Amino acid sequence: MAPVKKTPPRRGLRQNWAVNFALLPMAVTVLLCYVGTVLWSITISLTSSKTFPTTNFVGLAQYERLFTTERWALSLHNMALFGAIFVVSCLVLGFLLAVFIDQKVRGEGVLRTIFLYPYAMSFVATGLVWQWMLNPGLGLQQAVRQLGFPGFEFDWIISQDKVMYAIALAAVWQSAGLVMALMLAGLRGVDEEIWKAARIDGIPVWRVYLSIVLPMIAPSIATASVLLSLAVIKVFDVVVAMTGGGPGIASEVPAKFIMDYLFNRANIGLASAASVLLLLTVLALLLPWMYAKNRMERAQTKGH
């Protein structure tokens, strides 16, 4: 006899409809609040909108004006400089902290909390704390001078050439703990037999980390790199809290440029064009990472 096909019970169908109905508000929110606003920003960036949106289509004129604006070029330069310092420093410092904690040190839980605590703070709070610490008349410079070193100078926050280094210092202090947590999770996944074999063969510890451990925790490094890069692109709070974009416009970044032209200079067309470019930058970072992650997951599934 031919096997009888079982039809799913109506109760299961009703549950599926209930789940889909419950997800409907979220789907509408995504379509309207995210996709809708993105499309609106792209449309406005192609018009001559100033204080209020208009339908006067000007093509790519706003983008051409954007790339001829010296302030936008400076903001891109500052973002690149900040990003290079921030990402590299966080990866190196976070990895070293993870290696230190991975040695089963006493008070490991307390140390993890201490290193990760700054990440729980907002960038505004971090910026205000570091603004006070780097203030030449109140903070570290003044404290060292009062200790008997009158020639000591640490005035990065008021120097046009060094202000981005001061902002990067504060951002690294806040975010290195997150990288440590990601790296530590990767290190705890390394098989203990690898270390035993390395000790038997007499391989130096630094060589094991460089040639074996780092490739094994590559997914953790990639995740940390993407998160840090996204933080670089949207950096705003710490700049406003520490310097307000100053001295002058020496610490201008793209996000502050957008907010300034959107609210203070009443040029939403130019601000929208800059926003679209930042969105494209984010997509350029996320899409390859997501593609590589999906390929890795599929390969692991096929392997099993």
Word description of this protein:
Keywords: Cell membrane, Membrane, Transmembrane, Transmembrane helix, Transport. It comes from Rhodoferax ferrireducens. Belongs to the binding-protein-dependent transport system permease family. This protein is an all-alpha fold and 304 residues long. The protein has a single domain, classed as MetI-like fold (Orthogonal Bundle). It has 13 helices and no strands. The mean pLDDT is 87.
Which properties best describe this structure?
304 residues, mainly alpha, MetI-like fold, 13 helices, 0% strand, ABC_transporter_permease, Glucose/mannose transport system permease protein, transmembrane, cell membrane
What summary fits the major beta sheet? none
CATH architecture: Orthogonal Bundle
Work out the strand percent. under 5%
The helix/strand class is: mainly alpha
Question: Could you give the count of β-strands?
Answer: 0
Based on Cα principal axes, name the global outline: globular
Distance between the termini: 36 Å
CATH domain class name: Mainly Alpha
InterPro entries: ABC_transporter_permease, MetI-like, MetI-like_sf
Membrane topology: Multi-pass membrane protein
Subcellular location: Cell membrane
Organism: Rhodoferax ferrireducens
Could you provide a short overview of the structure?
The protein is mostly helical and about 300 residues long. The chain has 13 helices and no strands.
Q: Which helices and strands occur, and which strands form pairs?
A:
Layout: H1 10-45, H2 61-67, H3 70-101, H4 108-120, H5 123-134, H6 140-146, H7 163-187, H8 192-201, H9 205-216, H10 218-233, H11 237-242, H12 254-264, H13 268-303
Transmembrane segments: 21-42, 79-101, 113-133, 163-187, 208-233, 268-292
Domain ABC transmembrane type-1: 76-289
Protein name: Glucose/mannose transport system permease protein
